[in-house]
Design goal:
Elements: H1 24-27, H2 29-39, E1 44-45, H3 46-53, H4 57-69, E2 73-80, E3 83-90, H5 92-113
Antiparallel strand pairs: 1-3, 2-3
C-alpha cells in the first residue's frame, strides 16, 4: 500500500484525518467511560462509576476533577440517609464533547472499513 500527499477535498480544502478531531480530555479511557456512563442516566453515583470502570477511588477522583474543570460534568456531594455520596452529572458541554468524540471515532471506523482503491473485495 502506498499513500500520496493528496488530502484535498473536492472543494479544495484539506481534509483532516479523523484522529485530528479526537479530544485528548475526552479520549482517555476512564474519562470516556465516565462520560458515556453519565450519558446513560440523569446522574450517576461515584461508587457505581468506580465499579463499572474498574478504577480506584483516587484514580476516579482525579479523572472527575479533570472533567469538572473542563466543564464537562458537575459533581454534587450529599447524603443518602447517613451515608455520604458523590453524584456526577453530564453538562451540555460534556454532551457536545462526547458527541464530537463519537463522530470522530465513527469516521475513523468508516475510513478503515471502506474498501481500498484497487483492492479486490473477494480478498478480504
Amino acid at each position: 500500500m502506498s499513500v500520496d500527499d493528496s488530502t484535498a477535498t473536492q472543494d479544495g480544502e484539506e481534509e483532516l484525518h479523523p484522529t485530528q478531531t479526537l479530544d485528548d480530555t475526552v479520549h482517555q479511557r476512564v474519562r470516556l467511560g465516565v462520560l458515556t456512563v453519565a450519558r446513560e442516566a440523569d446522574r450517576v453515583e461515584f461508587s457505581f462509576l468506580k465499579k463499572q470502570l474498574a478504577v480506584t477511588d483516587g484514580n476516579l477522583s482525579r479523572h472527575l476533577k479533570v472533567l469538572e474543570e473542563s466543564g464537562m460534568i458537575t459533581v454534587e456531594k450529599g447524603y443518602a440517609g447517613r451515608r455520604p455520596r458523590t453524584w456526577v452529572t453530564l453538562t451540555r458541554e460534556g454532551v457536545l464533547a462526547l458527541d464530537a468524540e463519537l463522530r470522530a471515532l465513527r469516521a475513523l471506523v468508516l475510513r478503515l472499513d471502506a474498501p481500498r482503491p484497487g483492492s479486490d473485495p473477494a480478498d478480504a
